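[job 4471] stage=fold_predict status=RUNNING
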Amino acid sequence: MAMESLLSASLIEGVPIPIVMIAADERVAAANAPARALLGVGIVGRHYLLAMRQPSLLDAIEGTLRHGQPGVARHIVTGPAQETTYRVTVSPVVGEGRAGVICAFEDITEAEQIGQMRRDFVANVSHELRTPLTALLGFIETLRGAARDDPAARDRFLGIMEREAGRM
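[job 4471] inference complete, writing structure tokens
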């Protein structure tokens, strides 16, 4: 193995996130331990189409190989307990007369879960506010109309409106 290949391999192996290098011949030239754990031990030497099968990732790799343009894709791994979502940054690499692509897999599962929790929270708060607000609007409409001159109904509706406002 040439000195620059040893250096490249040791640099990739030292990165704590999954890293895959794809050569211009479209074969996986190197993969660090986290990448081998994620994509399989026998990934090195295989064609990238056989090693990574998610269409958006394959499209990003192909675009980078063909046009030298960086790309980003999602890679989802379904496990026994949950899905793990990766943001894969695909970048062109050039050096020593060779070209290829490097794919860095960043685990964004926690950020995705936090985003979903935020969306669920906003939906729940919106629903919880909408119900008492609808009731309040109905009572206001009634107080302006049919119950305008009915002190007993007005007092009863104002009590309900106070409870609904307190609940919010």
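[job 4471] summary: Helices lie at 3-13, 33-39, 48-51, 55-67, 109-144, 151-167.
[job 4471] exit 0
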